[in-house]
Amino acid sequence: MASASKDSKGRWRIRFYDGGGARKELRLTGMNQRQAESIARHCAVLNAARCSGTGDIDRGTALWLQGIGENLYSKLAAVGLVTPRAAAVLGAFLAGYVQDRPDTKPATQRKYGSAVNHLVAHFGENRDLRSITRGDADGFRAFLYRQGQAENTVRRYCGLAKQFFRAALRRRMIDENPFGDQVAAVRGNAAKFHFITREDAGKILAACPDHQWRMIFALCRWGGLRCPSEVLALRWEDIAWQERRFTVRSPKTEHHEGKGFRVVPLFPELAAVLTEGFDLALSAIDAAGEGKARGTVRGPVITRYREATQNLRTTFQKIVIRAGLQPWPKLLQNLRSTRETELAESFPLQAVTAWMGNSQLVAAKHYLQLRDEHFERAAGKTDSVPPQVPPQVPPNTSADEGRPKNPKRQNPEKHGIFRGSADVFASLPNLRMGDTGLEPPQQNTGESGDCFTGAPTGAPKPQPADVAALASVLAALPPDRLAAVLLELVQSQAGR
Asked: 412 by DSSP, 3-state: which?
């Protein structure tokens, strides 16, 4: 039997006699009466199994024993009710965790390995998991800062440590996660933003050593693709030239439902570079004598770099320097950031994020840049306008075929001051022209007549004052009356 009672300080304790007749005591902390009595019942079952030497316990006690924390389990082991658990060693546990995650990609495995190396370097390979406290987690964070790691890098490593120890907690190897309250969310760093202007983009394109690099740069700067994962995954058959769009396969987000691919417009700047690359691929097929048609060009768009582990950043940095520019922070990511910022100025944000393959929250936090041009436009400066997208021309079509047709214009609504006047003049086409034509007939006086008034040349001409008076009278007439007067004048002249 095992009994639960309180000591002089009001703490619960469980007492029982082992097989040798010695009294054992197990002290509890933070327990109420119901919990203490439940533990006492399980202790009685465990003690009876020990005393009988069979080790048989009921299913309820076995399940309870599997679910308790390490602190209570170690107290049971201290009084001889259970066998002590094997020590959970940090190095062995982390190596087993990484090995048990075959669902992760090679890039994620490399990140896990880097975090494991930092944890082992700080705590030691043989450190017991149960001995690592929240204070030790703070010490690991300080250890990373002393190494000169950036803030976001420290957050990533602490986030991975939190993930590792959460797995140990789920396996009941520890009672709490020492990294549970560590800040791990990666935040945006506006200081590392850099906008690559169209002028600089042209210089970089000209400095690219071959067309493979021209397409890599265009896919990042004008298409907004992630590099290298999405750039290397693009194939020629993913491009729908006539629909002016292409499909992007995203290895980074494919584990999310419906996020494995997205459809992106074939932007004019990108279409021009990809068309050249398509023609080069077609020329290579013709040179090989395979006789394939244009539509059979298949396979990866980027053929020179096929390993995701290849370092494109180093080569791209040399290209930027060759173009006469100063390399900026986050060389490849800022190409994508620039394109998303540029598109957000001309298109709705929900369309831009769908094309870029991220959420609006992530876009606002990590990609969209605040530029000086935004302040200038807000202040009313007219020479700073968002970029306009020119018309696109797909391959195998002429410029006229690719140019969008202008929609048929409809007649604008008539201004109110002329409303009804057209009905008065509608009868003019039905009038017949006399034999004399539009010009008034010559007078028989032998004198030449004025070609505008029909009066003889020597006849007195109207004075400016008379003309002004007539104009003021006509201006005072309502529009419909003015139209009627003019119509009568035309008809009288036509009947002469």
From this structure: coil
SS3 391: coil
Average pLDDT over residues 160-182: 90
The answer on 254 and 147 residing in a single domain is no
Do 280 and 356 have their domain in common?
yes
Q: How many whole angstroms separate alpha carbon 82 and alpha carbon 73?
A: 8
Residue 214 forms part of a structural domain: yes
Q: Dihedral of CA 293/296/300/303: which sign?
A: negative
Rg of the chain over Cα atoms, rounded to whole angstroms, equals: 43
Residue 288 pLDDT more than 80?
A: no
Cβ distance 41 to 16 under 8 Å?
Answer: no
Say yes or no: 322 and 365 in one domain.
yes
Q: How many domains does the chain have?
A: 4
Q: Count of CB atoms within 10 A of residue 115's CB? A: 20
| pLDDT tens-digit map of 4-14 | 888 888 889 88
Rounded Cα distance between 81 and 42, Å, is 10
Who contacts 97 (Cβ-Cβ below 8 Å, separation ≥6)?
Answer: 164, 167
Amino acid at 162: K
- Where helices occur in 253-348 by DSSP H, the ranges are 268-287, 312-322, 333-344
Residue linked to tokens 């398509």: 278
Residue 354 lies in a domain: yes
Collapse the DSSP code of 246 into the 3-class scheme (helix H, G, I; strand E, B; otherwise coil) and give the result.
strand
| 388 domain-assigned | no
Query: Does the predicted TM-score (pTM) go above 0.90?
Result: no
Comparing 476 with 244, the larger pLDDT belongs to 244
pLDDT in tens, 323-354: 999 999 999 999 999 999 999 999 999 999 99
Task: Express each pLDDT in 449-489 by its tens digit.
Answer: 544 444 444 555 555 556 666 667 777 777 777 777 777 77
pLDDT tens by residue, 85-109: 666 889 999 998 998 888 888 888 8
Do 281 and 310 sit in the same domain of this protein? yes
H or E element, residue 153 = helix 151-170
323: containing domain: 209-378
Please report, for the domain that includes residue 353, its CATH number: 1.10.443.10
199 in the Ramachandran plot: left (φ > 0), alpha (ψ -120 to 50) or beta?
alpha
**Looking at residue 468, what is its pLDDT?**
66
Q: 369: Cβ–Cβ under 8 A, 6 or more apart, which residues?
A: 190, 193, 195, 337, 338, 341
19-26's contacts with Cβ under 8 Å and 24+ in sequence apart are 19/50, 19/51, 24/79, 24/80, 25/79, 26/75, 26/76, 26/78, 26/79
Residue 217 binned pLDDT confidence (cut-offs 50, 70, 90): very high
